[in-house]
Structure formats: structure tokens, C-alpha cells
Amino acid sequence: MSGSDLRNEVRESFTALYGHAPESLWSGPGRANLIGEHTDYNEGFVLPFALPQRTVAAVGPAPAGEWTVCSTFESECVSFGATEPGEVTGWAAYVAGIVWALRDAGFDVPGARIALDSEVPVGSGLSSSAALESSVLTALIDLGGLDLPLERRPALAQRAENVYVGAPTGILDQSASIRCQAGRALFLDCRSYEIKQIPFDLAAEGLAILVINSNAPHQHVDGEYGARRKSCEDAARLLGVPALRDVPLDGLAAALEKLDDDVMRRRVRHIVTEDQRVLDTVALLEAGRVREIGPLLTASHASMRDDFEITVPQIDVAVSAALEAGAYGARMTGGGFGGCVLALIDVDRAEAVTAAVADAYGKPGFAAPTCWIAVASAGATRL
Ligand code: GLA
User: Fold this and answer.
1) Of the residues 169, 218, 221, 267, which should be mutated to test ligand 1's pocket, given the most ligand atoms within 8 Å of the CB?
2) Confidence band (pLDDT; 50, 70, 90) for 76?
3) Does the structure show a pLDDT above 70 at 220?
4) What is the DSSP annotation of 282-307?
5) pTM score, whole prediction
6) What is the pLDDT of residue 222?
7) How far is it, in rounded angstroms, from Cα 166 to Cα 172?
8) DSSP, res 106
9) Which residues pair with 113 in a beta bridge?
10) Ligand 1 center to residue 170 CA distance, Å?
11) pLDDT averaged over the chain?
12) Nearest alpha-carbon partner for 201 in 290, 331, 297, 292
């Protein structure tokens, strides 16, 4: 569906549901992380970009203290008043969580009627949840004229997800969906929240990022994510640093010697080397040496596969097939255990790489992958 079709549909569905036109439309994008995986909650570095696929929210006013949200994905609308974490569950918890986090931060949140639709694939590691959060957050801020600067918004959306929904995620997804710009990748320091917009116009170089959705069922995601996070935090404690970000690359060997547990050592090695790969990727992009980031992407994948152990066979096969078909580099993006691979390719190789991955999936009998080219897009906005 084109973006304008989606907008028309959401506008029409709002009008059909509530009997009047919405005040306006807002949208928030899904995200891909170019590099820097699981570094966010270790207070390190990430480099995401926003996807063209967006969640669109048509929003209009409601009486004070009343919120209703309907989605084309769900048969039932959900209405709620002022709630505490956990009271609204399921998909609507992301919306109730945003309302809660805003109110908890002292804002007078306007009542609202909301109709939602989305092009962001759910369960593919492209952060459909952040797209939902950022579209609703931006709408409520605009509707209520709330004074919440852009740089403070990701932490508030993260709080909705951590405290209200109960998912222990870092700040990567919300930052990407809120702060990314078209044609740029977002270099974020997850400790200071400082950002730098990095030029990422691949088409100008004859290049593209091919997204390969493995369509592998997401399994054990929550428990495994929490286990990785705990292992990193335990390691930081044992090493006597505030976060693994504070272990420098040239201090890695010494740090690893202090840890007895082999699994924990590998988790630490992934985080410390991954932070450095983000910095190296940023330096190459800023120098216009875009093709040269390929080996860093591939090294990141190997680290996620062997040290952080968050990949699955479908993902590893997609990376290998893309590389064999001529990609400069390829890696899984997102939290892991399924989801998508990003491959840096010459734009005219898109069909060949897509065919190679499909072919590689046929042999072990994996469900067919879905591939498309992702262009770095804008963050959440009023439409
Ligand atoms: C998920 C989380 C993020 C981040 C990534 C891994 O997307 O929501 O906070 O930790 O995994 O990089």
C-alpha cells in the first residue's frame, strides 16, 4: 500500500468509527539498526535509521481523562481513563503506557480518540511497537500543546515500554522512531543521549540496503533478551564499571581475564567490540567511504552469532547467501532470535541477492523470505 493510501484509509476509518473527521494525522516509522546491537542498555553506541514503513494515527479530541484507541489489526476498540502500569494489557498497553508516562511526567494529557493502521511488519524486529509509541506520543504532544522537546521524548516512550508494558528494552527503538531524519543514520550515545545525524544517502553511491525479512517465527525473545541484559549488567558489576560501555577496547583482554564464566566473557566481548564497530562505521560514513563499512557489518553479525548467540539458522543462512551473492556486508538487525538481515549491496544487485537468499532458503525448507530496499526516512511527525 502506498503511504497516501494508508493515510486515506486511516482517515476514513476514524470518521466511520467516531462519526466525525480527525483533527489531524500523525505517523511514526519502524526502524532498522545499521549497527550497534544490544549496546543501548550497556550505555554504548547505536546507529539506526528510520524505515519508510510507518504507523499512522488519526487523532481527534475527546473529553478530559478519556482515551479510545482502535486499530485495523484488532476487532475491538479499547477505552480507558487514567490508569496505572499493567491495567491495560495487549496492544493497547503501548498507547495507555504513553498516556501514563506523559501524565507521570506531569503533563496535562488531552483526552483523545485514535484510529491506527500500520505498514510496519509486526514481529520482524523492525520495531512496530516504537512506531506505535512515537506516532501516538507525537499526536498527544501536538494536540495538547505539551512542552516536551524532541530530545526528551525517547526516554519517555521507553519508560512507557519498560514500566507500563513491562518489556526491559533499551532506548534504541524509540530514539530511532522519534529522532531519525530522511537520508541520515542516527548516531546515538545511549549514555548522554547526544546525537549526530550521519549522511546516509546510499542511492547517490549506487548502493542500497536490502532488508531480508527471514519470516522466521520469533521464539524465546523476551526471556533471552532479559537474560542477555542481566549477563551484561552482572559483568559490569563484577568488573567494577557503571556499564560495559566503560570497558575500553584496549582493556578488553584484561577485563576478560577477570571473569570466570565463559558465556559472560563472550557477552562482554560482543558489547565492547560492537561499540568500536559503531564508531568505526560512523567514521567511514563521514569520510564517504561507504562500501568499506561492509566488513564491519559482517563482523558484527559473526559477533552476534558466536559471542552474543542471538541469531537463528534462517538469519545466518540469509547473511551467508547475501555475501556469496556479492553483498559488501550483511548482518542481523534488532534484538535477535528471528527478524531481519540488512545487506549492503550495489543497487543493481538487488534482484540477484534476493534470488540467492530465496534459493538458499529452499534447500533446508525454510519459509520464504521477503526482501525490499530500505531508504532512510524521517522520524515521527504530523502529516
Ligand atoms: C530491541 C530493543 C532495543 C535494543 C535491540 C538490540 O530492539 O528494543 O532496545 O536493545 O533490541 O540492539
Assistant:
1) 169
2) very high
3) no
4) HHHHHTT-GGGGHHHHHHHHHHHHHT
5) 0.96
6) 75
7) 16
8) T
9) 60, 68
10) 6
11) 96
12) 290
The Cα–Cα gap between 315 and 71 comes to: 30
| Active site amino acids | 173
CA 84, 85, 91, 94 torsion-angle sign = positive
Amino acid at 86: G
140: left (phi over 0), alpha (psi -120 to 50) or beta: alpha
- pLDDT tens for residues 302-360? 999 999 999 999 999 999 999 999 999 999 999 999 999 999 999 999 999 999 999 99
**162 CA → ligand 1 middle, Å:** 12
The string of pLDDT tens digits covering residues 335-348 is: 999 999 999 999 99
Distance CA 112, CA 110 (A): 6
What is the per-residue DSSP string for 195-215? EEEEE---GGGTEEEEEEE--
Q: Compute the residue count for the chain.
A: 383
Beta bridge partners of 211: 342, 372
Give 31's pLDDT tier (boundaries 50, 70, 90): very high
Pocket flag, ligand 1, residue 172 (CB < 6 Å): yes
Cβ of 335 below 6 Å from ligand 1: yes
254 contact partners, CB below 8 Å, separation of at least 6: none
pLDDT of residue 86: 92
* Of 13, 3, 161, 152, the residue nearest 77 (C-alpha): 13
Query: If residue 225 lies in a helix (H) or strand (E), which one and from where to where?
Result: helix 221-239
Above 70 in pLDDT, residue 73? Answer: yes
Q: Which three cell numbers stand for residue 42?
A: 550497556
Task: Tell which atom from ligand 1 comes closest to the C-alpha of 40.
Answer: 10
Q: At what angle do helices 313-324 and 350-362 cross, to 10 degrees?
A: 140
